[in-house]
Amino acid sequence: xxxxxxxxxxxxxxxxxxxxxxxxxxxxxxxxxxxxxxxxxxxxxxxxxxxxxxxxxxxxxxxxxxxxxxxxxxxxxxxxxxxxxxxxxxxxxxxxxxxxxxxxxxxxxxxxxxxxxxxxxxxxxxxxxxxxxxxxxxxxxxxxxxxxxxxxxxxxxxxxxxxxxxxxxxxxxxxxxxxxxxxxxxxxxx
Length: 190
Prior knowledge:
Helices cover 81% and strands 0% of the residues. It is an all-alpha fold.
């Protein structure tokens, strides 16, 4: 029975040329390489080693590619699906920033986060749409004016900070040029 499952896996993996190259190079069957990679990934996520980076890659890579496909297709339904995913992802990312100190104490947090991201993004589960329709849409609509005011204030603050940084940079460059040219522009060499 186990050999039959390995044979089916091998047939599926035969369609991926990179795995054939890895098998030839390492002299190890590709189905074992894939199983080993899956186990190593599971252990890393389970113990939280590099799991934050893995969650970021999973949370961005596949959805970004599918968003690109959605933009390029004529079907508008998939555009909506991926826009909803990005709204949900952004909401939980902002929320995560504020509860980051608690996340440290939650066992297997990144394993749960990875499962959540997969649930939210996969078209089979439509988790992001469920969250958006059942909670997030009403929350965002009821707080839309507050969010707009906060964004406008942030925009003004960012403009002010950018202007101050530009002025400080200009002063620093002028001081550096003055120092490099000898310090005093009125002094002449004789």
